[in-house]
Design a protein that fits this description.
It is built from 7 helices and 11 strands. By secondary structure, it is α/β, with parallel strands linked by helices. The chain has one domain: Carbamate kinase.
C-alpha cells in the first residue's frame, strides 16, 4: 500500500458504523507472506482518518498470510484442525493491527471467538457495541470460533449482530467485473449488483452463506480496492468507487 493521501476537505460520512473486512493477504504487502510493517502502518493511518470522521469501525481480519487452513497446499491435515489453525492466525493479525492503531493514538480492542483471556477479550456482542460507542476500533478475530465457517460468513454475521450500516470488503481490485480484468481486457466493471444476481451468476464477492445472511438482513456490501491510498475514507464518505452489492431501488 502506498502512503496515505494528502489531507483535504472532509465531507459528511455516509455511514455511522461500518464493518471492514480485511483478508490476511492485506497484511503481507509486497513480501507475499507474513506481516509487512509498512503495509499495516499504512492501513492504521487510513483508519485513523476514518476514525477522525466520527465513524464507528469494526474490523474482521483473515489469516491467509500466515495459514490457510484446509487450503494449505502440500499439507495433509484434518479440515477442522486446519480451520482452527487458521483462526489462530487471524488473532496474530488482529494483535498486530491493534498495536499499529494504538501507535497512531487510536484506542482499539481485539475480540476473539476463541477464549484466550491473556491475549484478547472474548467476543460479546453487547460489549463490542459498547466499545464502538466509546470510539474504540473493534478488531474481530478467530472467526465464529467454529470450523467450516469462513471469515466472510463471520463478517456478515458480526455486521448483523452489531447493526453495522455496511460491510466494506477490501480487495486488490477496484470492484466487481464481468470477468477477471487481468485476464480479459474486455471485462466490464459493475457498479451495482443485487444480492440474487451475485448468487445466481456465481460472482465471487463473498461466499453464498455470507451473501444470503446479508440479503436476509439488508446489509449492503461495498467491494473496493484497498491498495489505492485513501480508499477506506472515500468509501466511508460515500464516494462512487468500487461496486455496491445490495437491494436495487
Amino acid at each position: 500500500m502506498a502512503a496515505t493521501k494528502k489531507a483535504g476537505k472532509k465531507g459528511k460520512p455516509a455511514y455511522k458504523r461500518v464493518l471492514l473486512k480485511l483478508s490476511g493477504e492485506s497484511f503481507q504487502g509486497p513480501q507475499g507472506f507474513g506481516i509487512h510493517g509498512e503495509t499495516i502502518q499504512a492501513i492504521a493511518r487510513e483508519l485513523k482518518d476514518v476514525h477522525a470522521l466520527g465513524v464507528q469501525v469494526a474490523i474482521m481480519v483473515g489469516g491467509g498470510n500466515i495459514f490457510r487452513g484446509a487450503r494449505q497446499k502440500g499439507f495433509e491435515i484434518d479440515r477442522a484442525t486446519g480451520d482452527y489453525m487458521g483462526m489462530l492466525a487471524t488473532v496474530i493479525n488482529a494483535l498486530a493491527l491493534q498495536d499499529a492503531l494504538e501507535r497512531t493514538g487510536i484506542p482499539a480492542r481485539t475480540m476473539t471467538a476463541i477464549q484466550m483471556p491473556q491475549v484478547a477479550e472474548p467476543y460479546i456482542r453487547r460489549r463490542a457495541v459498547r466499545h464502538l460507542e466509546k470510539g474504540r476500533v473493534v478488531i474481530l478475530a478467530a472467526g465464529t470460533g467454529n470450523p467450516y465457517f469462513t471469515t466472510d460468513t463471520t463478517a456478515a454475521l458480526r455486521a448483523v449482530e452489531i447493526e453495522a450500516d455496511v460491510i466494506l470488503k477490501a480487495t486488490k481490485v477496484d470492484g466487481v467485473y464481468t470477468a477477471d480484468p487481468k485476464l480479459d481486457p474486455k471485462a466490464i466493471k459493475l457498479k451495482h449488483l443485487d444480492y440474487l444476481e451475485v448468487l445466481n451468476r456465481g460472482i465471487e464477492v463473498m461466499d453464498n452463506t455470507a451473501l444470503t445472511l446479508c440479503m436476509d438482513n439488508n446489509v449492503p456490501i461495498v467491494v473496493f480496492n484497498l491498495l489505492e491510498a485513501g480508499n477506506i475514507e472515500r468509501v466511508v464518505l460515500g464516494e462512487d468507487i468500487g461496486t455496491l452489492v445490495g437491494a436495487l431501488g
